[in-house]
Structure formats: structure tokens, C-alpha cells
Amino acid sequence: MADSRAVTKAVVPVAGLGTRFLPITKAVPKEMLPVIDTPTIQLVVEEAAMAGLRDVLMVTTRRKNAIEEYFDRNEELEDALAAKGDEAGLDEVRAPAGLAQIHYVRQGSPLGLGHAVLCAAAHVGNEPFAVLLGDDFIDKRDPLLDRMLQVRQQRGGSVVALMEVEPDQVSAYGCVAIKPTDEDDVVTVTDLVEKPEPGQAPSNWIIIGRYICDPSIFSVLAHTPPGRGGEIQLTDALRTLAISDRADASGDGVVGPDGGGVHGVLFRGRRYDTGNKIDYLRTLIQFACDRPDIAPEFVPWLREYLDSMLPASSAS
Ligand code: G1P
Prior knowledge:
Blueprint: E1 9-13, E2 34-35, E3 38-39, H1 40-50, E4 55-60, H2 65-70, H3 75-84, H4 87-99, E5 101-106, H5 113-118, H6 121-124, E6 129-132, E7 136-138, H7 144-155, E8 158-164, E9 174-180, E10 186-194, E11 205-213, H8 217-222, H9 234-250, E12 262-266, E13 271-273, H10 277-290, H11 295-309
Parallel strand pairs: 1-4, 1-6, 4-5, 8-12
Antiparallel strand pairs: 2-3, 6-11, 7-13, 8-11, 9-10, 10-12
Helix pairs in contact: 3-4
Bound molecules: 1-O-phosphono-alpha-D-glucopyranose.
1-O-phosphono-alpha-D-glucopyranose binds near residues 209 and 233.
């Protein structure tokens, strides 16, 4: 069912405690951890802005003020840079505030991702919207959100981004059962399960942190009981939408919320994970090797460093 309502809003939950990065996250929000010199949250907001989503609602909480500071102007710093004639520095400092109109709502208690999304209901209203999680971001050269928005427009309902992983990784993610459509990179999602027990996953396709949600998700979330980890899960609410659409289609009389079904976009591009230490380090190294202002000095050093770490016998 095609839907002409344009998606203009992005919801970015930033209320997580960041326990995987303690002790730094005691005082610094994990979203502010830098990829070299740019906080991960800026890369996520840039992704939304590049897809035309220039109304960004952050679902925030206590001790996350650094994020608001970052997306605000800093006139003192701007004046100092202007006095030095540092135009490049000025551009860098002003850029975050110019990316999008950023709004904030607080999630008072850590009741889960589904609850964080529900906190966005009043701001979003009765419009489809995107959800971008801050633990990963997608390479600008592989515009995933654009494709997801296209699928939403053509097919209605909700859309999740999917990636295939090794079977032993599936239980760290939301996972889906899928069936093909007439497009190679689009599937119908027939079931979803949040962090399945090893061996119980319906496939090796996992949900990465990009969603387009039909606004009917809000009324479903409001009635979704706590699931995995005792938290209200977005995955469980999407499951309700996927299953009720399937039930309606089978004509078995089960009428669910009228929100359309759930489709998946199979993503095979470059995604950077910053949600755990090893992947975060991989991301830093990849970015350093890709940046023209850093790579010429950094890459030869990295090569030499790695060579120097080889056991003497294997170095030639
Ligand atoms: C969340 C979602 C999960 C999804 C993951 C992607 O989990 O609940 O379904 O696969 O993000 O990063 P979290 O990483 O917050 O535990």
C-alpha cells in the first residue's frame, strides 16, 4: 500500500547508560565518543540530514547535557576563532547546529528502546518517522536511509534495515524471519525476535539501528509489555505489526492495528559499529585510513607498527 505522507522527522534515542564504555561514560555520554575528532552522534545526525530528515528529536536523559551543548552555538569559541581569522575552525564549530532542527525530550526511566520511541509520540504526531540508533552509522557512500524511505513510500507500513551476520552473532541483536519480494534487496518481514537464544533464531538477518516506523507503532508500543531484559522492546511492537498484517492477509479474522506490515531492506554496504570497544577501534582505524588529512602520515606508521609487532622469526 503506497503512502504519500513524506517522512521528515528522525528520532534518535540517546538515553542509554553506555555501560560498555565505563568508566568514560560516567561523565561523557557514549554518543559523544569521538571518531577521531567528530562525536558519533554528529555522524548519525548527518546521516539523517543527508536523507532530508531535518527535524531530529533526541530522546535524552540525565547527564547527557554535553549533547545539547554540542548541537548549540558556542559564541565565545566562535568569537575567539573569528578574531584569529580561523575560517575552517569556525565552519567546524558551527556545522552541528546547522545540520537540522534539533529537539529534545526526556526519557525519565530507562524502560527500553520501545519506551524511548514512545516518548517521541507527541512530537512526531500522526506521521511516519525514522529511528536512528547511535551505536552504528552508515557510510555516506551507501545511502541506506534513502532506500528505506523509498520502500516506505512504495509499500507503506514500517521498514527495518537488515544485515546478514554469522550465526554466533545473532543473539546480540533483533532478528527476523523473512520472505522474498519482487525486488532483490527488499523482503517481507514475517516475524521478529529480540536477541534470540543461540540456536533459536529464525534467520541470520539482524536488525541494524535504522527504522522507518508507521505512526501506528505508538499505540502498539503503549500496549507492549516488557520483553527481553525486562525492557519495552521496539522489536516486539514491530512484531505485532508484522503478525497482524500477516493475519489480515490470511483472512483468518484476526484484525490488528491498521499500520501496514513490516518490510526489510537488505543492506550490503559499509556500516560502522561503535557500540563495543573492538568495533569502535576498527571504526577509528578505518576512518583514519580513509581521511586525506590523516592517512598519508598515519598509514605508513600503522604498517611499521604492525610489522614491529610480528614475532622476529616471521619478520623478513
Ligand atoms: C537494539 C535493538 C536490536 C537491534 C540493535 C541494533 O539493541 O533492540 O533489535 O538489533 O539495537 O544495534 P541494543 O544494541 O540497544 O541492545
